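Entry 14. Two folds queued back to back today. First construct below, sequence then structure tokens.
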Amino acid sequence: MQTWSLWYQFAFHPNRIWQKADQEARRRLDNSLRQVRRNIRHRFRVLHRQGIHATILSESVLWEDQHTLWIAFDIPNAVNLHTAFETIVDALRTAIGTVEDNELKRYALDFWWPMMVIVPLIGRKSLDRTAWRISMRVFLWRNAFSEDDWWNYVRHPIPHQAWEQLGLSVWEIPRMEIATQLQSAVAELLFQVAHICDLERLPDVIDEQDRIIIQDYVKDLSADISETFQRVLDMMTEMANYFNDLPEEEKERRPSLLEAMQVLVEMHANVMPCESYDGELKLSLANMQGWGQRLETAIAQAEMIRLYWAADVLGLPEEN
């Protein structure tokens, strides 16, 4: 850090003359970072009054060998996870943006915290050991979440070593797993269908040998899609059966579960390969495009189901 501080001052301010250049260079860098930290903590204190408990979790733990600023936020209800995340992003953007926009701030943040990781917690624990990983540059140079920046909304598994160093805990309640597994299975199904759709980009003119190879490949993919599709249906059925077996009065006492079931019903049409599905999966390049588009909607619905399901599970007495 000392070397970098001196390099920066020499590279951008070569005409400055200091008595103790190494100390002054480091002081200026520390002041810039300190101001950003101060602003972040100030914005987080404001969020505390809104029921979002956010904190700077670590600056020393690395994400895959990269310096990282770890942010954690804790909320009591899983249903509000995405709303809280967007509130955190706005707070961070404001905190960073209100520090004087000069070269030292930009270079310091890009060097010292090139990565921002935001860890969501529900009741002080993680639902699935994942976090949002965002380059600091999107906060420094442009709107971090424009319509074209969908990848910033994708959560990533936290590396095992980082997880251990952070000392975080995860909810380990068996009944929560099915909603997470459903979400993963729908994502896998979308990936498989999208992969077949990509075959439409192949040139129109191919020889007979290539055609045979492609047909065999599609046949293998179809078997994988059928297996994944069946897993999705089985998990949806299991969740619906759990709900249907409950007494009516208990259903009424569990609004988050009711919401999960409502979204599950809506999602059913989107995971079906076609309106005329009769129990036998018949795949062709012609109907893949529409199915892929519906599965994109199903992905968002599966996430809603997961959060409503988690809110219901965490709201039950501990022995359940």
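Second construct, same run, same settings:
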Amino acid sequence: MPRYRYLLILSLLLVWQANAEDISITGRVVDKPCTIDVDTESKLVNLGTVMFTRLRNAGSGSNWVDFELLLEDCSRSTVSVTASFSGEANIDDITAFKNQGSAKNVALQISNTDHSVIYGDGSQKIVTITTDTHKAIFPLSARIISPLGNGSGGSFRSVVNVDFTYQ
């Protein structure tokens, strides 16, 4: 009978040792992202009516129309926001976005407001968060261009997706 008790105690020790393994638990703590302004969520930029005669020459374009993308309520730990632009590039000018309307030989061009930087598919723009308002404002401009000239009349519609990354 003493042997039986010894085996029982030994069995209990083995079970206890098997359950004493270390467990590794990992995770990530992040701060809340900025809030995208309601007008920015589904931004509609009206480029107005353009006479196709303004789009006859290669590289010609309509007047620039300024607009903003606005992010609000950014956390105090968020320093900057990167906007990444994506969409179907124009076949004749890959820095412009394809027109999905009926007008021919025209495309959408997006730039900063002084028109020194053009944002096409895959481009990025970084903006610093304003510390007193906790906002990120992306001032941009858009226009219709005719990369090769001979722009024709018709409807104009282009879609650009913007993804925001917080730093």
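Quick look at the second one. Residues 38 and 70 are 9 Å apart (CA to CA). The two ends are 70 Å apart (CA to CA).
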